[in-house]
């Protein structure tokens, strides 16, 4: 008999990431199920996306009282949002407030990046390895790595020769950056560029924006929250949350007023004008078929282009800022504060790199079309390797030595965005194929965490030690997701929804667009029916009955 002690600590569940999802997983699995949970987080603090994204002007594009957790009444009632759209510092304070209320920090190991995970078919467990040398073993592995957690870094020639500072909006210095008196370049006009450019322009001596693709954006009309508003929201949170769960996108946006062919365009124009002044994302939803009809979309798109020309003084600059490359709403619609107005400042200029791309970086700056633009600092607002980026950077080895990066080489495939065949006992929160990126992601996170916890509870009660998504169910779901997307204008845009912003990434639509409400119903039915689409090994009794139900379905 051996007295050898296994040097690898063992847990019931290992979680990767300590953002909203990781924190809620600890609470749900530890406090509700009594499981031993270990979280590995690469950052020096919790918060996920909101820990890293500290660029000037960073804030949420959903209203604060919607972009918050709903499972704890005490947290809802104690926390007070200060603005209609919360800024990054306030959201990070909120995340830490939640973590303290739930007392989860003891389960989280910071400054630790998960580098690999191998499934042991003999014990039906995962062994996780990290960059610090720490390892852990667990029956279940859950990825809570986030949708927008890996910056997409460009590879311009000569970047290492630039004598000034280079910053990426997705990995901003935590001590902040002082641009006072500096000549600053910003490359990229997606959401992070649109939020940061006006703020940087308030400090810098000059700002030059390098734009490849003009982006639709609408005014945020952000403002402080009043005490009366906070009290009213807290009184009605229960009803509001239920309405959000039963909505298309998990947040209460203003609905459309009808299809393009059926409504009076004078009424449409008036409603667009009203929403432009303060309805945020709902501005693009005046026409109910805006994402299905190119005629409807063209009308809404032209309205925004007209607004750009009203706001921007220089007709040539306004023309460059007009988006023509994609239908409005088929990329994430940013909301902004004074974005277009910023181009009326004398010290702000716009350079189109659509027809004359950046040739290279030089020690002094950036060279475009043979001309050298000199800068003291360069900001890369080039977005993220979204949805799958963090997963691709971890060496997941499943059954028969298969690697997830190889299985997903032609595009990510998962069942419900929650699990993938060949990788037993491994779950993904807000994974590819889920509705998360087209919804209020907090609502999707809560649903995924709760569904995963319920399923683990079911497995443990049945004595099932191994489960995985079947190839057939995964293929059906992936096909269904693609078919729904094909019924809309979404695939016509070269968006990060399609992975189009990352060179070499497969072009696969990464989101279920059938709506959060329909997705929740489908997941609930799958649970009620004994989890068809999953294999169940290692259990008896209840497990056998679950398999029988699954086979019938």
Please describe the topology of this protein.
Blueprint: E1 10-16, H1 20-32, E2 37-40, H2 49-52, H3 73-78, H4 88-102, E3 108-109, E4 114-120, E5 125-130, E6 135-143, E7 165-168, E8 183-187, H5 191-203, E9 206-211, E10 218-219, H6 227-245, H7 265-276, H8 294-311, H9 315-321, E11 335-336, H10 339-342, E12 348-352, E13 358-361, E14 365-368, E15 371-374, E16 377-380, H11 389-392, E17 395-397, H12 404-407, E18 426-428, H13 441-462, E19 466-469, H14 471-486, H15 516-528, E20 534-537, H16 542-552
Parallel strand pairs: 1-2, 1-6, 2-3, 4-17, 6-18, 7-16, 8-9, 8-16, 9-12, 10-11
Antiparallel strand pairs: 4-5, 5-6, 13-14, 14-15, 19-20
Describe the structure.
This protein is α/β, with parallel strands linked by helices. The protein has three domains: 10-150 and 386-552, FAD/NAD(P)-binding domain, CATH 3.50.50.60; 168-215 and 337-383, 3-Layer(bba) Sandwich (FAD/NAD(P)-binding domain), CATH 3.50.50.60; 253-333, no CATH class. It is built from 16 helices and 20 strands. It has helices spanning 20-32, 49-52, 73-78, 88-102, 191-203, 227-245, 265-276, 294-311, 315-321, 339-342, 389-392, 404-407, 441-462, 471-486, 516-528, 542-552, and strands at residues 10-16, 37-40, 108-109, 114-120, 125-130, 135-143, 165-168, 183-187, 206-211, 218-219, 335-336, 348-352, 358-361, 365-368, 371-374, 377-380, 395-397, 426-428, 466-469, 534-537. The strands form five sheets. Strands 1, 2, 3, 4, 5, 6, 17 and 18 form an eight-stranded mixed sheet that branches. α5 (191-203) links the parallel β8 and β9. α1 (20-32) packs parallel to α13. It is globular and about 70 Å long. The model is unreliable at 540-553 (pLDDT under 50).
